[in-house]
Specification:
Order of helices and strands: EEEHEHHEEEEEEEEEEHEHEHE
Strand content: 25-35%
Largest sheet: 7 strands, mixed
Distance between the termini: 7 Å
Length: 272
């Protein structure tokens, strides 16, 4: 199995773009897939420099309906009009960030839904013995407080986003299981709880942002929650790679208890 972070908020390899967003390339014996496409066509410029050929991708999975994970889809579709692009049925709804007295649209480009290669997946989809997708995470343990400004627009009103549009990809090869999540808006502990219900046990590797980043300083409660999550993850026999929306301060707080079990993934980093 080969896993490469094509783009992320921080530069890991000289000469690559770093941009707010995420795109992970995974190659198995049967598949070449992407989880998310970053925020723009810069993802494909990085891919070329990393020796990844977008025209050879067979499937793209969108982890959730936000621009920084879907912004490269339209340019990808011109490079590769044949790959399946798999979204949750709710991924195309109108999502906003309401903060600082402004309404910022953070959903996907509506043109994406018109692409003939787009497929809307229900939770519990399995491609084959290597690739499967799950959702329906309803737990709220240590749910990220930074979600509170994120809304879904329904008519003329805004409602709290429940993140039912998140989907999680499991890649299995030679007895090793890798769980990929874009931002873990539903909370990494709740996602792992749901994984355990469906697959049993824990994955060998988790690749995910943890959505702990904040513009304003963390208060004592924020720090306590982040520390608690790190301590619970440290008790699992799982290796975690994170970045993007986790935030460097949160990463270092979790690192205190997790040590080498937690690694930061930069743009261009090869995970496997």
């Amino acid at each position: 199995m080969k896993i490469i972070n094509l783009i992320e908020d921080t530069q890991g390899t000289e000469g690559l773009h770093a941009e707010h967003g995420l795109s992970i390339y995974i190659e198995t014996s049967r598949h070449k897939i992407l989880v998310d496409t970053g925020a723009s066509e810069k993802t494909w410029e990085n891919a070329e420099r990393l020796g990844v050929r977008p025209e050879e991708i067979d499937t793209v999975f969108l982890s959730h309906g936000h621009y920084d994970h879907s912004g490269g889809i339209l340019s990808f579709s011109k490079i590769n009009p044949n790959a399946r692009i798999c979204l949750h049925p709710s991924a195309g709804f109108a999502y906003y960030n309401l903060r600082d007295n402004r309404e910022k649209y953070i959903g996907i480009d509506a043109e994406i839904l018109q692409l003939p290669q787009c497929i809307l997946l229900q939770a519990g989809y399995r491609v084959d013995e290597e690739i499967s997708v799950f959702g329906d995470v309803t737990g709220r343990r240590k749910w990220p407080g930074s979600n509170l400004t994120l809304k879904r627009k329904e008519g003329n009103r805004f409602v709290q986003d429940s993140f039912d549009h998140e989907q999680y990809i499991v890649v299995e090869e030679r007895g090793r299981k890798v769980l990929l999540s874009g931002c873990a808006h539903n909370g990494i502990l709740n996602i792992l709880d749901r994984y355990g219900e469906l697959y049993g046990g824990r994955p060998d590797i988790v690749i995910s942002g943890f959505h702990m980043m904040k513009k304003e300083p963390y208060d004592e409660k924020d720090i306590a929650v982040i520390r608690d999550i790190g301590e619970e993850l440290s008790g699992m026999d799982t290796l975690f790679y994170t970045g993007h929306c986790t935030g460097m301060q949160a990463f270092h707080i979790m690192k205190e208890s997790m040590g080498d079990q937690l690694q930061y993934m930069h743009a261009g980093d090869r995970i496997l």
